[in-house]
Amino acid sequence: MAAMQLFYEHGFNATTLNDVARAARANTGSLYYFFKTKDDLLLAVLDNYVQLLWPAVMSAPFEQTEDPIEKIFAVFERYRQGLIHTGCTRGCPIGNLALEVGDAKPAAREKIALNFANWCKAIQQCLDAAAPRFPPDIDREKLSRFVLTILEGGIMQARGHRTIRPFEEAIEFLRDYFNRLLKK
Amino acid sequence: MAAMQLFYEHGFNATTLNDVARAARANTGSLYYFFKTKDDLLLAVLDNYVQLLWPAVMSAPFEQTEDPIEKIFAVFERYRQGLIHTGCTRGCPIGNLALEVGDAKPAAREKIALNFANWCKAIQQCLDAAAPRFPPDIDREKLSRFVLTILEGGIMQARGHRTIRPFEEAIEFLRDYFNRLLKK
DNA sequence: GTCTATATATTGATAGAC
DNA sequence: GTCTATCAATATATAGAC
Fold it and tell me: Which residue of A lies nearest to B137 if distances are taken between CA atoms?
């Protein structure tokens, strides 16, 4: 799906159907055989991201280590490598779309929320696996959302400053928070 | 400045100069007397946000309490009220622009980075004022960026889910982290 | 400085041949 | 299913009167 890459690189509004068709080595007319409107194409892209969560995001980092907490940091390391690889010009495709078209397109926003929720569920699996090490009053579902908060906020600043440092610092603080949270 | 409000509500690319002119009760032709291009208008808007940091963002929350740490949470409360007031459809105008046009327009990105840096500086003033209560190995400049990370990440999820909860949870976790960090 | 009018390009989308 | 051709609308931007 060529649109996925283009929306990721330039955003939804800045990508024309001409761009999409050219990248797919087709013509604009052909696009409309598959997608009724440009918004429909966006929804298809967001559905695609839902499908890609495990194969493209979680599976590799999760296999790198047995420790559930370290799995989380392996996921962050994957995003860190992505930022470095693009010179901190691109971050999280879902986060980008959340802020660009979130409120204007209800159907898209719901799929964005689903992407967020599924991402958090994967992280919560790790937190649950380490449940005995956490204080009993810690809500691990909320904590999984806080982990995403740190990821997205760190990515945003890395892109804003075009340097990986704010993202790396965010990882360090998350590490410090976990250290203070987890039983020794 | 009408463009500021429109970029905030609909984003940069989704706002036309016609929209801006109409909101300013003028005509598109008039806009070009003040701004050479649409990108120039964006830069002016971002400059405006730099000027507004203290009068429109920091001053009121900072005056609400003497405790420097509570000043920070007063700032978060201000953003929380903003989210609630708009039904979680709008968040941080700088964050929006950072992810929508950040990499495509270098001049804009630099002004976005300046907005981020100044925001963090204000927060760091609070952290420095509470310096003796922090562990000596805590880098308060980095911590100020982590505070922004949590703000922006929390706003993003609040908008994605169209509910204030993720933002409120982020505040709770920041509070918990500070509690664990600060000397009793 | 603000207006009207318009140039030029591009947009999302459609029609119909093959 | 993919193409060519094209529509109608809209975009940014300009020219020149007042």
Answer: A176
